[in-house]
Amino acid sequence: MNQLIITIFVSLVIGVASTNANSLDRIANVFIKDGLNLRHLEFSITDTGLKIHIDKKHETKKDQFGDTPQQPDGRIILKATGDPLAQAHSWDYTASRPGKYWVELVYSLAKGKSTAMPDISAYRIPTRLEATGAPNRFRNVTLGKVYFVQPGPQKIGLKFRGQAPLMRALILRPAPEGEPIGQALDRSVLLHGRDATIHGTKLQYETKPHKNTVGYWVNVMDQVCWDFTVALAGRFDVEIHQGCGTGHGGSTVAFEVAGQKQEFIVKDTGHFQNFVPRRIGTVRLSKGGHRFWLKPVRKAAGAIMDVRRIRLIPAE
Q1: Residue 104: pLDDT above 80?
Q2: What is the pTM of this model?
Protein backbone atom coordinates (compact mmCIF):
# COMPACT_ATOMS: atom_id res chain seq x y z
CA MET A 1 0.00 0.00 0.00
CA ASN A 2 2.80 2.47 0.86
CA GLN A 3 4.49 1.79 -2.47
CA LEU A 4 1.18 2.41 -4.27
CA ILE A 5 0.71 5.75 -2.47
CA ILE A 6 4.24 6.86 -3.34
CA THR A 7 3.77 5.84 -6.98
CA ILE A 8 0.54 7.86 -7.19
CA PHE A 9 2.30 10.83 -5.55
CA VAL A 10 5.18 10.65 -8.03
CA SER A 11 2.72 10.65 -10.94
CA LEU A 12 0.98 13.72 -9.51
CA VAL A 13 4.28 15.59 -9.03
CA ILE A 14 5.37 14.83 -12.58
CA GLY A 15 2.01 16.00 -13.85
CA VAL A 16 2.24 19.27 -11.92
CA ALA A 17 5.84 19.86 -12.96
CA SER A 18 5.28 19.27 -16.66
CA THR A 19 2.54 21.89 -16.81
CA ASN A 20 4.04 24.39 -14.40
CA ALA A 21 5.31 27.63 -15.97
CA ASN A 22 8.32 27.54 -13.64
CA SER A 23 9.42 24.18 -15.11
CA LEU A 24 9.69 22.30 -11.83
CA ASP A 25 10.54 19.18 -13.81
CA ARG A 26 13.88 20.80 -14.75
CA ILE A 27 15.02 21.33 -11.15
CA ALA A 28 17.60 18.70 -10.26
CA ASN A 29 19.13 20.22 -7.12
CA VAL A 30 19.12 23.36 -4.97
CA PHE A 31 22.18 24.89 -3.27
CA ILE A 32 23.80 28.07 -1.98
CA LYS A 33 27.38 29.25 -2.32
CA ASP A 34 29.10 29.11 1.06
CA GLY A 35 32.49 30.71 0.53
CA LEU A 36 34.31 28.56 -2.01
CA ASN A 37 31.98 25.62 -1.42
CA LEU A 38 28.47 24.64 -2.42
CA ARG A 39 26.04 23.84 0.38
CA HIS A 40 23.24 21.64 -0.85
CA LEU A 41 19.74 22.30 0.48
CA GLU A 42 16.78 20.07 1.06
CA PHE A 43 13.77 21.01 -1.04
CA SER A 44 10.23 19.81 -1.65
CA ILE A 45 8.11 19.68 -4.77
CA THR A 46 4.48 20.44 -3.88
CA ASP A 47 1.27 21.13 -5.74
CA THR A 48 1.94 24.86 -5.20
CA GLY A 49 5.54 24.84 -6.40
CA LEU A 50 9.06 24.55 -5.01
CA LYS A 51 9.65 24.80 -1.26
CA ILE A 52 13.24 25.30 -0.07
CA HIS A 53 14.07 24.40 3.51
CA ILE A 54 16.34 27.28 4.51
CA ASP A 55 16.25 30.86 5.78
CA LYS A 56 14.87 33.15 3.04
CA LYS A 57 17.80 35.58 3.34
CA HIS A 58 20.09 33.20 1.43
CA GLU A 59 20.29 33.47 -2.34
CA THR A 60 19.65 30.00 -3.70
CA LYS A 61 20.87 28.52 -6.96
CA LYS A 62 19.69 25.49 -8.91
CA ASP A 63 21.16 22.68 -10.94
CA GLN A 64 18.76 22.12 -13.82
CA PHE A 65 18.28 19.31 -16.29
CA GLY A 66 19.18 20.30 -19.83
CA ASP A 67 18.22 18.86 -23.18
CA THR A 68 21.30 16.65 -22.85
CA PRO A 69 23.12 15.43 -19.72
CA GLN A 70 26.30 17.39 -20.54
CA GLN A 71 26.26 21.01 -19.33
CA PRO A 72 28.56 23.68 -20.85
CA ASP A 73 30.39 24.17 -17.53
CA GLY A 74 31.30 20.48 -17.27
CA ARG A 75 28.51 19.21 -15.02
CA ILE A 76 26.77 15.99 -16.08
CA ILE A 77 23.17 15.83 -14.83
CA LEU A 78 21.30 12.55 -15.30
CA LYS A 79 17.64 11.82 -14.64
CA ALA A 80 16.03 8.42 -14.32
CA THR A 81 15.52 6.83 -17.72
CA GLY A 82 12.59 4.75 -16.45
CA ASP A 83 10.78 4.38 -13.14
CA PRO A 84 12.39 6.82 -10.63
CA LEU A 85 11.46 4.33 -7.88
CA ALA A 86 13.31 1.46 -9.53
CA GLN A 87 15.82 -0.62 -7.57
CA ALA A 88 18.46 -0.08 -10.27
CA HIS A 89 19.30 2.58 -12.85
CA SER A 90 21.77 2.67 -15.72
CA TRP A 91 22.90 5.16 -18.32
CA ASP A 92 25.07 5.04 -21.44
CA TYR A 93 27.01 8.28 -21.44
CA THR A 94 29.66 9.50 -23.85
CA ALA A 95 32.29 11.48 -21.97
CA SER A 96 33.54 14.52 -23.90
CA ARG A 97 36.84 14.58 -21.95
CA PRO A 98 38.80 12.60 -19.37
CA GLY A 99 38.75 13.88 -15.81
CA LYS A 100 37.55 13.59 -12.24
CA TYR A 101 34.04 14.21 -10.92
CA TRP A 102 32.20 14.23 -7.62
CA VAL A 103 29.14 11.95 -7.81
CA GLU A 104 26.03 13.35 -6.12
CA LEU A 105 22.66 11.65 -5.69
CA VAL A 106 19.51 13.74 -5.24
CA TYR A 107 16.79 11.54 -3.74
CA SER A 108 13.81 11.31 -1.42
CA LEU A 109 13.09 8.51 1.05
CA ALA A 110 10.03 8.89 3.26
CA LYS A 111 11.19 6.22 5.70
CA GLY A 112 13.14 3.00 5.86
CA LYS A 113 16.75 2.11 5.16
CA SER A 114 18.61 2.25 1.86
CA THR A 115 22.17 2.00 0.58
CA ALA A 116 23.29 3.50 -2.73
CA MET A 117 25.73 1.33 -4.69
CA PRO A 118 27.27 3.17 -7.65
CA ASP A 119 29.12 1.41 -10.46
CA ILE A 120 30.92 4.16 -12.36
CA SER A 121 34.34 3.78 -13.95
CA ALA A 122 35.33 1.04 -11.44
CA TYR A 123 34.05 3.05 -8.43
CA ARG A 124 31.77 0.84 -6.30
CA ILE A 125 31.89 2.13 -2.72
CA PRO A 126 28.40 2.05 -1.09
CA THR A 127 26.83 4.98 0.78
CA ARG A 128 24.04 4.70 3.34
CA LEU A 129 21.07 6.98 2.68
CA GLU A 130 19.15 8.65 5.47
CA ALA A 131 15.38 9.05 5.30
CA THR A 132 14.19 12.52 4.21
CA GLY A 133 10.84 12.22 6.03
CA ALA A 134 8.53 12.65 3.04
CA PRO A 135 8.34 11.29 -0.51
CA ASN A 136 8.42 14.81 -1.96
CA ARG A 137 11.35 16.07 0.16
CA PHE A 138 14.72 15.74 -1.61
CA ARG A 139 18.30 15.70 -0.34
CA ASN A 140 21.73 15.71 -2.01
CA VAL A 141 24.40 13.26 -0.84
CA THR A 142 27.91 12.80 -2.26
CA LEU A 143 28.67 9.20 -3.21
CA GLY A 144 32.37 9.71 -3.94
CA LYS A 145 34.80 10.74 -6.68
CA VAL A 146 35.16 9.00 -10.05
CA TYR A 147 37.74 9.27 -12.83
CA PHE A 148 37.05 8.91 -16.54
CA VAL A 149 40.44 7.80 -17.84
CA GLN A 150 39.60 8.74 -21.41
CA PRO A 151 36.74 10.30 -23.36
CA GLY A 152 34.17 8.11 -25.06
CA PRO A 153 31.41 5.66 -24.04
CA GLN A 154 30.92 5.18 -20.30
CA LYS A 155 28.63 2.83 -18.40
CA ILE A 156 27.07 4.50 -15.37
CA GLY A 157 25.19 2.27 -12.96
CA LEU A 158 23.38 2.82 -9.67
CA LYS A 159 21.63 0.22 -7.52
CA PHE A 160 19.97 0.34 -4.13
CA ARG A 161 20.06 -2.19 -1.32
CA GLY A 162 17.01 -2.09 0.94
CA GLN A 163 14.24 0.43 0.33
CA ALA A 164 14.51 2.01 -3.12
CA PRO A 165 14.40 5.83 -2.84
CA LEU A 166 12.83 8.15 -5.37
CA MET A 167 15.80 9.14 -7.54
CA ARG A 168 15.55 12.72 -8.81
CA ALA A 169 19.04 13.21 -10.24
CA LEU A 170 22.55 11.83 -10.44
CA ILE A 171 25.01 14.72 -10.80
CA LEU A 172 28.65 14.39 -11.81
CA ARG A 173 30.27 17.67 -10.79
CA PRO A 174 33.85 18.61 -11.83
CA ALA A 175 36.33 17.75 -9.07
CA PRO A 176 40.00 18.64 -8.50
CA GLU A 177 42.30 16.49 -10.61
CA GLY A 178 44.89 16.28 -7.83
CA GLU A 179 45.66 17.29 -4.27
CA PRO A 180 44.82 20.26 -1.97
CA ILE A 181 47.12 23.26 -2.51
CA GLY A 182 48.86 25.15 0.28
CA GLN A 183 51.53 27.81 0.64
CA ALA A 184 55.21 26.87 0.57
CA LEU A 185 57.76 27.88 3.19
CA ASP A 186 58.98 30.70 0.92
CA ARG A 187 55.35 31.98 0.84
CA SER A 188 54.89 31.09 -2.85
CA VAL A 189 51.89 29.13 -4.09
CA LEU A 190 52.15 26.58 -6.93
CA LEU A 191 49.01 26.04 -9.01
CA HIS A 192 49.93 23.06 -11.17
CA GLY A 193 47.81 21.68 -13.98
CA ARG A 194 47.65 18.30 -12.21
CA ASP A 195 45.71 19.92 -9.30
CA ALA A 196 43.24 21.97 -11.36
CA THR A 197 39.46 21.69 -11.49
CA ILE A 198 38.18 21.73 -15.07
CA HIS A 199 34.89 23.44 -15.88
CA GLY A 200 34.11 22.66 -19.49
CA THR A 201 33.58 20.02 -22.14
CA LYS A 202 36.91 19.78 -23.99
CA LEU A 203 39.55 21.36 -21.73
CA GLN A 204 41.40 18.66 -19.76
CA TYR A 205 44.45 17.79 -17.74
CA GLU A 206 46.78 15.91 -20.10
CA THR A 207 48.71 13.34 -18.08
CA LYS A 208 51.45 12.26 -20.51
CA PRO A 209 54.90 13.15 -19.09
CA HIS A 210 55.89 15.38 -22.03
CA LYS A 211 52.61 17.29 -21.62
CA ASN A 212 51.64 17.34 -17.91
CA THR A 213 49.46 20.35 -18.66
CA VAL A 214 45.97 21.77 -18.86
CA GLY A 215 45.33 21.63 -22.58
CA TYR A 216 42.97 20.88 -25.44
CA TRP A 217 41.61 24.40 -24.88
CA VAL A 218 39.51 24.80 -28.00
CA ASN A 219 36.26 26.04 -26.44
CA VAL A 220 36.19 29.66 -25.32
CA MET A 221 33.49 28.76 -22.75
CA ASP A 222 35.75 26.25 -20.97
CA GLN A 223 37.38 27.51 -17.76
CA VAL A 224 39.76 26.20 -15.13
CA CYS A 225 40.32 27.01 -11.46
CA TRP A 226 42.51 26.11 -8.50
CA ASP A 227 41.50 26.23 -4.83
CA PHE A 228 44.34 27.01 -2.44
CA THR A 229 45.05 28.23 1.08
CA VAL A 230 47.19 31.21 2.08
CA ALA A 231 48.78 31.14 5.55
CA LEU A 232 50.81 34.36 5.20
CA ALA A 233 49.01 37.20 3.42
CA GLY A 234 50.57 39.76 1.12
CA ARG A 235 51.13 40.89 -2.44
CA PHE A 236 52.02 38.30 -5.08
CA ASP A 237 53.25 38.41 -8.66
CA VAL A 238 51.37 36.05 -10.97
CA GLU A 239 53.67 33.97 -13.16
CA ILE A 240 52.13 31.67 -15.77
CA HIS A 241 54.02 28.89 -17.58
CA GLN A 242 52.16 29.00 -20.88
CA GLY A 243 52.64 27.32 -24.25
CA CYS A 244 50.99 28.10 -27.58
CA GLY A 245 51.52 26.66 -31.05
CA THR A 246 52.74 28.69 -34.00
CA GLY A 247 49.93 30.80 -35.42
CA HIS A 248 47.63 30.30 -32.42
CA GLY A 249 48.75 33.23 -30.23
CA GLY A 250 46.79 36.39 -29.56
CA SER A 251 43.85 35.11 -27.51
CA THR A 252 42.69 37.25 -24.58
CA VAL A 253 42.40 35.50 -21.21
CA ALA A 254 41.40 36.85 -17.79
CA PHE A 255 42.55 35.63 -14.41
CA GLU A 256 40.43 36.24 -11.33
CA VAL A 257 41.22 35.76 -7.65
CA ALA A 258 40.02 37.39 -4.42
CA GLY A 259 37.82 39.90 -6.28
CA GLN A 260 40.67 41.01 -8.55
CA LYS A 261 40.58 40.55 -12.31
CA GLN A 262 43.24 41.22 -14.95
CA GLU A 263 43.54 40.30 -18.62
CA PHE A 264 46.55 39.21 -20.65
CA ILE A 265 47.29 38.23 -24.24
CA VAL A 266 48.46 34.67 -24.94
CA LYS A 267 51.97 34.55 -26.40
CA ASP A 268 52.88 32.36 -29.39
CA THR A 269 55.73 30.16 -28.06
CA GLY A 270 56.22 28.03 -31.18
CA HIS A 271 54.66 24.87 -29.70
CA PHE A 272 51.91 24.11 -27.22
CA GLN A 273 54.37 22.24 -24.98
CA ASN A 274 57.05 24.90 -25.23
CA PHE A 275 56.25 26.49 -21.87
CA VAL A 276 57.49 30.01 -21.26
CA PRO A 277 57.24 31.71 -17.82
CA ARG A 278 55.54 35.10 -18.00
CA ARG A 279 54.60 37.66 -15.35
CA ILE A 280 51.00 38.65 -16.10
CA GLY A 281 50.00 40.71 -13.07
CA THR A 282 50.07 41.28 -9.33
CA VAL A 283 47.41 40.49 -6.72
CA ARG A 284 46.93 40.95 -3.00
CA LEU A 285 45.76 37.90 -1.03
CA SER A 286 44.50 37.69 2.54
CA LYS A 287 44.94 34.74 4.87
CA GLY A 288 42.52 31.91 4.13
CA GLY A 289 41.05 30.04 1.19
CA HIS A 290 41.04 31.39 -2.36
CA ARG A 291 40.04 30.32 -5.86
CA PHE A 292 42.14 31.30 -8.88
CA TRP A 293 40.30 31.27 -12.23
CA LEU A 294 41.50 31.36 -15.83
CA LYS A 295 38.68 32.44 -18.15
CA PRO A 296 39.08 33.01 -21.89
CA VAL A 297 37.68 36.29 -23.18
CA ARG A 298 38.42 35.94 -26.90
CA LYS A 299 39.91 33.10 -28.96
CA ALA A 300 42.21 34.29 -31.74
CA ALA A 301 42.75 31.00 -33.60
CA GLY A 302 42.14 27.25 -33.29
CA ALA A 303 43.18 26.80 -29.66
CA ILE A 304 43.84 29.16 -26.77
CA MET A 305 46.93 27.80 -24.95
CA ASP A 306 48.35 25.07 -22.72
CA VAL A 307 49.10 25.88 -19.06
CA ARG A 308 51.47 23.68 -17.09
CA ARG A 309 51.51 25.77 -13.94
CA ILE A 310 50.96 29.15 -12.33
CA ARG A 311 53.15 30.47 -9.51
CA LEU A 312 52.12 33.14 -7.05
CA ILE A 313 55.43 34.69 -6.02
CA PRO A 314 55.75 36.99 -2.97
CA ALA A 315 56.27 40.56 -4.19
CA GLU A 316 57.17 42.11 -0.84
Answers
A1: yes
A2: 0.90
